[in-house]
Design brief:
By secondary structure, this protein is α/β, with parallel strands linked by helices. It contains 8 helices and 17 strands. α7 crosses α8. The chain is globular.
């Protein structure tokens, strides 16, 4: 029987990962309390949805579950200054090569060529050295490639200078300047090692009290480190999502986390990842036999539908941008139709989206 309804795009076409979102649902501020966020629970086997509060998480998990979070710490990576001639300039530090040498994104890229110096503050300037070596992924539309830049410090310690003069690198969909409160709220309470230019936002909902309640419930707590790069903000430009690439990101699996993982797996218990970054670190650290390897490494893993998850059984995550690699990961885990149906229900019920927004638990 003929129909005017267009066929759904194939699962590997990026257009299949779009959805309508009213701009007023993009959270511009964090909630008054971290665990006051709402929590949409999706059963990926049945598609059933339930609406809870994030503070309910302990009763939604099972005693014996291993909850694994990313403890990477966001550093004040955004430097604002003036370029030669007086125009505004921005340098987003991405990856440290030496104490004062970084890979960075610079704006306006066409006016900041090799040799240009950006004045940031008294005693702190940034000189553009040239293109950054390597780089796995091309810049997104409208971006310039990574540059190599050097901090010019008049007797200042590099880390102290960044802490004093750097800004919190809030995502571009937060349409306001950063404030002093963002230094604490755009950071998880368990953040430790500095290195991320974006927060592992699924972890923003946790409080020390909530973590203690989880432990009292019998939920084990584990941590990994994955330093989040700017690729987290980049839309997927490839028409076929399997061709999307990201620049490598450093990660660490501590020995105690690997031991907890092996113990949980041997006893048939669940591993619950807190966020897409913890998921990528865990899946990247498995060896061919499915054992989690402790140590450091780099990952450029892109998870798209069709991926076989071996390390993660359930997922705590935020709501992600259309056409983003983060949304692709969640749909790979729970199914495109079910995730997009859940997003549609979240929009209908006025959930708050993105970094400072509400959360999902996918079981």
């Amino acid at each position: 029987m003929p129909t005017d309804r267009p066929a759904d795009p194939p699962q590997y076409e990026i257009g299949a990962y779009d959805y309508p979102l009213p701009s007023e649902l993009i959270a511009q501020e964090p909630p008054a309390r971290r665990d006051a966020s709402r929590l949409l629970v999706l059963d990926r086997a049945t598609g059933t949805l339930s609406h809870r509060d994030f503070a309910d998480l302990p009763e939604l998990l099972r005693p014996g579950d291993l909850l694994v979070a990313n403890r990477s710490r966001v550093f004040p990576a955004r430097l604002l200054g003036r370029r030669p001639g007086g125009g505004e300039a921005e340098v987003l530090l991405v990856r440290r090569r030496e104490p004062d040498l970084w890979e960075a994104m610079v704006r306006p890229g066409r006016r900041l060529r090799a040799g240009a110096v950006v004045d940031v503050a008294p005693g702190l300037r940034v000189r553009v050295e040239g293109p950054a070596p390597g780089g796995a992924s091309p810049p997104a539309r409208g971006e310039t490639p990574l540059r190599q830049v050097r901090l010019l410090l008049d007797g200042l310690d590099p880390d102290s200078a960044l802490e004093r003069h750097g800004h919190v690198p809030l995502p571009p969909y937060i349409h306001r300047p950063d404030t002093p409160s963002d230094r604490e709220r755009y950071q998880t309470v368990f953040a430790r090692e500095k290195g991320s230019v974006a927060a592992p936002t699924a972890g923003l909902h946790f409080t020390p009290e909530l973590i203690e309640r989880l432990r009292a419930r019998g939920v084990e707590w584990g941590e990994v480190v994955l330093h989040v790069g700017p690729g987290t903000f980049r839309p997927v430009e490839a028409g076929d999502v399997r061709r999307h690439r990201v620049d490598p990101e450093r990660f660490t699996v501590p020995a105690e986390t690997a031991a907890a993982y092996e113990r949980v797996r041997a006893q048939g218990r669940r591993v619950v990842a807190v966020g897409t970054t913890a998921t990528r670190a865990l899946e990247s650290a498995l060896d061919a036999d499915g054992r989690l390897q402790a140590g450091e490494g780099e990952t450029d893993l892109v998870i798209v539908p069709g991926f076989r998850f071996r390390a993660v059984d359930a997922l705590v995550t935020n709501f992600h941008l259309p056409r983003s690699s983060l949304l692709l990961l969640v749909t790979a885990f729970a199914g495109r139709a079910r995730v997009l149906a859940a997003y549609s229900e979240a929009v209908r019920r006025r959930y708050r989206f993105y970094s400072y927004g509400d959360a999902m638990l996918v079981v």
